[in-house]
Amino acid sequence: MATSNLELVVNPRVLEMEYAVRGPIPQRAAELKRQGREIIPCNIGNPQALGQSPLTYFRQVLALVEEPSKIARERKLKELFEETPGSPLSEDDFLSEYVLEVSERILRLSGTGTGAYTESKGFAFVRQAVAEFINRRDGFTGDLQADPERIFLTDGASDAAKRILNVLIAAPNDGVMIPIPQYPLYSASITMFGGVQVDYYPDEERDWALDRQELERAYRQATRQGVNVKAIVVINPGNPTGAVLDEESVREVIDFAEEHRLAIIADEVYQENVYGEKFVSFARVLGDRPVPLFSLHSISKGFFGECGHRGGYMEVRNPPRIAGSDQSLIDLLLKQASVGLCSNTAGQILTYLMVTPPEEGSEPYALFQREKERILQDLYEKAQMIRAAFDEMEGVKCFGKTGAMYLFPRLDKLPEGTNDFDYCMALLEETGLVTVNGSGFGQKPGTHHLRIAFLPPKEQLQEVLPKWIEFHNRYVRG
Q1: Which CATH number goes with the domain that contains 384?
Q2: N vs C: which end of the chain shows fewer Cβ within 10 Å?
Q3: DSSP strand pairing (196-200 vs 174-179)
Q4: Distance CA 267, CA 193 (A)
Q5: 144 and 225 share a domain?
Q6: How far apart are CA 366 and CA 73, in angstroms?
């Protein structure tokens, strides 16, 4: 195909954006795969790409909502089965009446099915269900209850994060504090919208705990340089670190934000992935304090793994007034959402199912619980396998409780003149294992890390981990 000889001046902010999760190492992995090499893609939290099965209940309901004629057909076939003695089929070969009724309820509440645009904020009944989920999770009653009109359904949590950053960054000196290491969505989006990235460093050796003194240091340094700091991002459980914040750390951030009149962006997409630890939401700890809070959740993570369906929500608490306007921030977010008309309807339906799982005692409940427990237990066991492998690698340390889908080990012993990018590229070339260099997420100067998603099947890990150990110890000895 021919290439145009036209030279185009493009947005320099897009040129400057970096996104290591799909950067040079994954690109090289794709090239090796085309050459016939076996590749193990641990660079991204994409569970179904590595063999995790979709939840049966989710897909049964979604299939019927997408093709409503199958509801009547399913009932008719079951009726014929019951009228046919000696049939080789059994009751288990048919969808439960509960699944059929849930699908009918979704269709009735939607009013238009999945092929039409929804309200710009998303289906009202889904937003109501999200509000009830938040109230149950955090024990909210009275004035603290979530308001469906302050909930926006989005194409995954990434869409929500970009929306709010786009609104907050109004001038070139507007700054947003982000944890280092961080998920590069935030650094890339701040660059794209023309703001200033303000780095703060969780304490790695204290299991990535947040420290008020460090938050103050980062804030003071930025303001001395003329940055107008407007918000702080917190990812809990952490990506890439997997750290699970305790209530004290959450409260420290809220105290800090209140003192400096900052908004909080709480990325809580891994709230189900805590493996025996306790997830504490920012909304619950915030209570009735007047700090603006934007909470994000998604169907991509947790035990759901529905990355490709791009569903999620943003809840807004204490929206600030807009300077020089009689509009509220909710009005502005609605205007912004309206430009895209609505988020995709399949993602909205799966978000509804995420916040309204099968009722205890219903026909799908037992299977749903078994699938949930199996997925989360399997993830934890795979994380432990990889952590055990680190113990056999010279100069590798991994801090923090296990959370999210990632481990972020520190590489304390690399050959002179090399860095974590060199290491991860060499690891890929020799073993086919795709990881992401720590510098792609940011890290303290002078340190080296990598991020690995603990998603491959155990059998594949059992095969590749000895190769990684052997590679590592040979590589670091030069």
Answers
A1: 3.90.1150.10
A2: N
A3: parallel
A4: 19
A5: yes
A6: 25
Burial of 233 (0-12, 13-18, 19+ CB in 10 A): buried
Residues 149 and 294 in one domain: yes
Contact 297, 160 (CB under 8 A): no
Tell me the C-alpha to C-alpha distance, in Å, between residue 13 and each of 102, 178, 191, 440. 46, 18, 6, 18
Write down the pTM of the prediction.
Answer: 0.88
Structural domain includes residue 69: no
Q: Tell me the range of 19-33, 130-144, 453-467 where mean pLDDT is highest.
A: 130-144
Report the run of H or E that residue 53 belongs to, with start and end. Answer: none
pLDDT score of 15: 55
First to last CA, the chain: 45
In the predicted model, what is the mean pLDDT of residues 88-108? Answer: 82
Q: How far is it, in rounded angstroms, from Cα 162 to Cα 179? A: 17
User: What is the tens place of the pLDDT at every residue in 82-96?
Assistant: 667 767 766 776 678
Residues 284-336: tens digit of each pLDDT: 999 999 999 999 999 988 888 888 888 999 999 999 888 878 888 888 887 88
Is it the case that residue 51 has pLDDT exceeding 90? no
179: phi > 0 → left, psi -120 to 50 → alpha, else beta; which? beta
- Which helix H or strand E contains 5, and what residues bound it? none
Which amino acid, one-letter code, is at 187? S
The answer on 374 and 332 residing in a single domain is: no
**Residue 212 is part of which domain span?**
124-355
Give, in order, the Cα–Cα distances in Å from 338 to each of 117, 316, 343. 11, 17, 10
DSSP H or E run through 253: helix 247-260
238, 342: one domain: yes
Percentage of residues in the chain having pLDDT higher than 90? 48
Q: Tokens 């109004």 correspond to what residue?
A: 170
| Residue length of the chain | 478
Residues 113 and 65: beta-carbon distance below 8 Å: yes
Three-state DSSP class for residue 437: strand
Q: Kindly tell me if the per-residue pLDDT of 373 is higher than 90.
A: yes
Question: Of 256, 249, 255, 217, which is closest to residue 235 (Cα–Cα)?
Answer: 249
Last residue of a domain, one of 355, 377, 397: 355
Write the pLDDT tens digit of every residue in 396-415. Answer: 999 988 888 889 999 999 99
Q: How far is CA 200 from CA 232, 391, 427, 431, 449, in A?
A: 10, 29, 30, 34, 17
- Ramachandran region, residue 442 (left: φ > 0; alpha: ψ -120 to 50; beta: rest): left
